[in-house]
Write a structure and sequence with these properties.
heterodimer; A: mainly alpha; MetI-like fold; 2 domains; 0% strand; flat; B: alpha/beta; Rossmann fold; 9 helices
């Protein structure tokens, strides 16, 4: 009895020491080291503001990692989530330090065109109202366009896949209009539409519409005909066949279409904002470049990358919810 | 007089009387006509279990699709209890060779499909549970089809059919793709369910032994275009035994009719 208990306690001690996340401690140390480099290595070209601020950010991240190491010993969930990030948490401060070295510390990269990380931080601190406003405008424009494009595309795809007579009329339109890059229609739309904003909504919608339509259509027409036979013998109406058989069966394709449509909508959004709409992240990029404010440009680019990636992640999250029945679907 | 008498009998039995008269059907394949059924006539009494046997591709499955109302017949008459079959109806349910469960629906929702399609589900949820219990899969109600074995999936398909309380159960080689042990178990289940529910059953199979174990009557079809070659009544109660000399003798006869006497 007592020997069994001894073995059990021995094991539990063992697992908790294994659970001490060494990689996390290394990561924290590297973040602290890069903070030290940022503070103590003198800036070469000019005195950058926010140098101390950047070091503080590094120290904060180091502190958070240490916190995760400590809490992770009790919370299995947190440990599992953070520990997969370990290698990246070490690589990131190294990359940051290299960037810092080549720009602020050694001045190897020409200054106005390549901004050091603290310059970006400075932009976020100083210019955040304008950045937030741009982000909001972009979000509204993109949201409107993608919503219109996705809804009309889905409807058109189901209609073409289902009804021969609708397909007869829509198919040629799809074939002619769809493959045209929607940015090519930009000059035309800017004088056809009452405002550059509505023209941009139309173009973003068009960019989303094409892949969503084609893939929804392909999804609906590739539904196993036996599924319809089963439902029909059980007394299903046309309506039931469309909404309860064709559409759920086509959903995996629809999500591929939405993924492609979202990607196309991003580039249309940026071009539209650069060419006509006087707000949004695309406009901010153009504006920053016009003033040779390269740090602002990098700051905006970074925000854009995070926002676009976040949207795609959100789409995949919705897909994983709706298509939980699929086996071995790709993980984003 | 005779008609009313027959109607009252039909009402007593939950099964449906099927009348196939002079039925002909053809496919058009790359422009030319390919006859698949040639003047087929067959009467199936209410509550009877009839098996259709014939060479592969002879048109038996087409006959089932016509009986189900999935396709209109070219010529001839198809009557269910005296009423012409023009479209599918939940009183005539098909169990296909593949379970064709909807992968996006859980087992319970797959079984509920017919009731949902007819707008009856709200008041008849208990029937779904009963049907799942009948095929012994109550514990898998929340599973997705991909988590089931072939035999389990086919039992779900059977429950999906039975929940509609069909008066004619059309079985299109439902056990054709199962392993032999599962097949033996499910043959017994089919007999039990048929005896308990009293529906009429029409079974297409390639398996002579299966036809002899299950059916009251075996119809042997010729090669395409299918015509009825022979009809054998199997005068034996249930459960039947595979090694019953009477069945073995019938098996020999049927294999002879199918041109396979040598392989006996």
């Amino acid at each position: 009895m007592s020997s069994v208990e001894l073995v059990e306690t021995g094991e539990s001690v063992n697992t908790s020491t294994v659970r001490l996340w060494l990689q996390g401690l290394v990561a924290a140390a590297v973040w602290i080291a890069s903070a030290a480099l940022i503070i103590w290595w003198p800036n070469a070209v000019r005195k950058w503001p926010m140098t101390q601020g950047l070091a503080n950010v590094c120290l904060t991240i180091a502190a958070l990692i240490v916190l995760a190491v400590i809490v992770g010993r009790w919370s299995e969930r947190l440990a599992r989530r953070t520990q997969t990030l370990g290698a990246w948490l070490i690589a990131l401060p190294i990359l940051l330090s290299l960037w810092e070295l080549f720009t602020a510390k050694l001045g190897w990269l020409p200054v106005p065109f390549f901004a050091p990380p603290q310059a970006l931080l400075d932009v976020y601190v100083e210019d955040w109202p304008r950045l937030a406003d741009s982000l909001l405008h972009s979000a509204i424009l993109l949201g409107s366009g993608v919503a219109v494009g996705a809804i009309t595309g889905f409807t058109a795809g189901v209609a073409i896949g289902w009804s021969r007579s609708i397909g007869y009329w829509l198919h040629p339109v799809l074939r002619i209009l769809g493959p045209v890059p929607s940015t090519a229609l930009l000059p035309l739309c800017f004088f056809l539409f009452p405002s550059s904003w509505s023209a941009s909504v139309f173009l973003i919608a068009l960019a989303t519409w094409f892949p969503v339509t084609v893939l929804t259509w392909s999804g609906v027409s590739s539904v196993d005909k036996a599924y319809y036979d089963v439902a029909r013998t059980l007394g299903a109406s046309q309506r039931f066949l469309i909404f309860k058989v064709a559409i759920p069966a086509a959903l995996p394709h629809v999500f591929v279409g939405l993924f492609m449509g979202l990607g196309a909508s991003f580039s249309t959004l940026v071009v539209a904002e650069m060419m006509g709409v006087k707000s949004g992240i695309g406009w901010y990029l153009q504006w920053a470049q016009g003033w040779a404010a390269y740090a602002n440009m990098y700051a905006a680019l970074l925000i854009m990358a995070l926002a676009c990636s976040g949207l795609i992640s959100a789409l995949f999250l919705i897909r994983d919810r709706l298509l939980a029945w699929q086996q071995g679907a790709m993980k984003w | 007089m005779v008609n009313t008498a027959r109607a009252s009998v039909a009402q007593q039995s939950p099964g449906l009387a099927l009348r196939i008269d002079n039925l002909s059907h053809a496919f058009s394949l790359e422009g030319h006509r390919l006859p698949v059924l040639e003047r087929v006539s067959l009467d199936v009494a209410a509550g009877e279990f009839v098996a259709l046997l014939g060479p592969s591709g002879c048109g038996k499955s087409t006959l089932l699709r016509l009986v189900a109302g999935l396709e209109p017949a070219d010529r001839g008459t198809l009557l269910a209890d005296g009423v012409a079959i023009t479209s599918p109806d939940p009183s005539r349910v098909v169990v296909f060779q593949d379970p064709t469960l909807y992968p996006w629906r859980r087992v319970w929702d797959n079984v509920a499909l017919g009731l949902e399609a007819q707008g009856l589900l709200k008041t008849t949820r208990g029937k779904v549970d009963q049907a799942l219990a009948k095929v012994g899969l109550s514990q898998f109600a929340r599973a997705y089809p991909r988590q089931l074995s072939g035999g389990m999936a086919q039992r779900v398909a059977l429950a999906r059919a039975l929940v509609n309380e069909p008066r004619l159960l059309i079985l299109d080689e439902p056990l054709g793709k199962l392993d032999s042990l599962t097949r033996i178990a499910m043959q017994q289940e089919l007999i039990d369910l048929w005896q308990r529910q009293g529906y009429t059953a029409l079974l297409v199979t390639h398996d002579v032994e299966e036809a002899l174990l299950l059916a009251n009557r075996v119809i042997v079809f010729s090669d395409r275009p299918a015509t009825i070659k022979a009809e054998l009544t199997i005068d034996r109660g249930y459960p039947r035994h595979r090694d019953d000399p009477y069945l073995l003798d019938l098996r020999k006869q049927i294999l002879g009719l199918l041109g396979l006497a040598e392989s006996w």
